Structures are given as structure tokens and as C-alpha cells.
């Protein structure tokens, strides 16, 4: 089976797969959509328990991988296209949508769910069901926006995590984020950036923090401010969920 390096990385993140598999085992039944099916790995798990699975993928190469993986199931249909525009033939008992990224900024999860939610049956479920986003003031030794992978050598955390939103994915969500936040400072020094961290509730009982391929913390440069211990810093933070990283604006004072 041909598979892209990206899909291979997703498949080798066992912590990510374990929480999704557990959530799917708890909630898959009846009609299931797997939106952004990629290699089809989550659709295959759901197919063991559901009557039928619609596995939707917009990338043609990934969709071919999914077709390959899912061809031996007689209860799976692979649909190639944008899940944010698709008309679904039947309503779903469960929508799985692993289009996650830090802050939900650079992936389509929110616009896709805003489109697909009306197709969910009453009493149906969505995996994930809730997202928590938090922000910390940092001193960042890299002058550019980047994801934090492993090492924390190039940053100093200057204050505690402020959980600035909880998104209930069962409800329509405004894609525009425009917030004024207060950040406490723990030590004297310089703040020149923020770190966004995302926590994912797959079901009300299963929560997952960052894993190698699920929401690595996002380091965002801001203007520079000298700060003192116990100072309260103001942060203006704007972005569009699903709009991409270029929509981020962050200013401190
Ligand atoms: C993070 S990957 C997850 C893949 C797979 N579900 C898994 O868990 O390994 C997200 C997938 O969603 C697909 N995708 C992103 N936006 C989409 C959209 N609007 N419609 C359909 N697929 C989309 C991407 O091409 C990618 O394969």
C-alpha cells in the first residue's frame, strides 16, 4: 500500500491512535462519518462496530490509500472531496473528524463541522467533542512562528497557562477569534512571544494533550516587552480557525 510520509508519521503516533480508538470503541454505532479519513485508519476501526461508514478525504493520494485499506469492508464508502461542502446521503449517529491542529487555526475542523453538524442525528456524537486552548507568555529565542517539537531549549516560559477558550464542538462555532487576555508574569525578564497549547476531549471522559502528531505547542512571536515578576501583561490575540497561520495577530502591552 503506497502511503505518504505525513500519513506514516500520523500512523506511528501510537498515543494519538490509542485515544481515538478508545473513543471510537465507545461511540461507533449505526451510521458513522469519518471526515478527513487520510489513510482510513479511524474509519477501519469504526467499520468493525458501525452499520455503515462514509470515509471522506479531499486529498486524492490519501483517498487512494484509504480505498486500499478499506476495500475489504463491505460497509464502508470512500468519498473523495471537501467535507466542508459535501452533501451527505444519510444522517450520522457519529461524526469523527481528526482535522486537528494547535488552536484549530491551520486545519478545517471548525468550518467542516459547522457544515456537517446539521447532518448529525439527535442524540448523536462528535469525536472530538470539546477543545481547550491555553496561552503562556514566553521568551522565544527563534524569531519566527514554529511548532515546538521536543526540545524546550530555545524558549523560557514567563508565566502560567491561561485557558482562554473551551469550544463545545456540538454547537455552531464562530471561526473568528478576537480576544483581549491578561497574562500573569512569574519572573523579571523579557516577553517576546506566546505559546499556544491545545487539549482535546475526544469524549467527555477521554482527554489528550499534545502528542508528536496531535497539536504540538505553537510558538508565536509578538512585539517585545520588558516585564517584572507579578506584572499582568495584556495580550490581544486574533486568528481565524481554518484560516491558516497567516491570520494570527498577537500583540502584548
Ligand atoms: C490530521 S489528518 C488525519 C488523517 C486520519 N484521519 C488519521 O487520523 O490518521 C487530516 C486529514 O484530513 C484531510 N482533510 C483536511 N481538510 C479536509 C476537508 N476539508 N475535506 C476532506 N478532507 C480534509 C487531510 O487531507 C488529511 O488527510
Task: Walk me through this protein's architecture.
This protein has helices spanning 5-12, 14-27, 41-47, 60-70, 109-116; strands spanning 31-35, 52-57, 76-80, 92-97, 120-127, 130-140, 146-147, 155-157, 162-168, 176-184, 189-203, 206-208, 218-227, 232-240, 249-252. With 253 residues, the chain is α/β, with parallel strands linked by helices. The protein folds into two domains: 5-98, Rossmann fold (3-Layer(aba) Sandwich); 130-252, Hnrnp arginine n-methyltransferase1, CATH 2.70.160.11. Strands 6, 7, 8, 9, 11, 12 and 13 form a seven-stranded antiparallel β-sheet that branches. The chain has a five-stranded parallel β-sheet with strand order 3-2-1-4-5, sandwiched between helices. It has a three-stranded antiparallel β-sheet with strand order 10-14-15, with no helix packed on it. β11 and β12 form a beta hairpin. The longest helix has 14 residues, at 14-27. The termini are far apart. Residues 10, 36-39, 41-42, 56-59, 62, 82-84, 98-99, 108, 112 line the site of S-adenosylmethionine.
Helix amount: 10-25%
Outline type: elongated
CATH topology of the largest domain: Hnrnp arginine n-methyltransferase1
CATH architecture of the largest domain: Distorted Sandwich
Question: What is the CATH class designation of the largest domain?
Answer: Mainly Beta
Mean pLDDT: 96
Instruction: Give the tally of β-strands.
Output: 15
- Assign the structural class, choosing from mainly alpha, mainly beta, alpha/beta, alpha+beta, or little secondary structure: alpha/beta
- How many strands, which pairing sense, and closed or not: the largest β-sheet? 7 strands, antiparallel
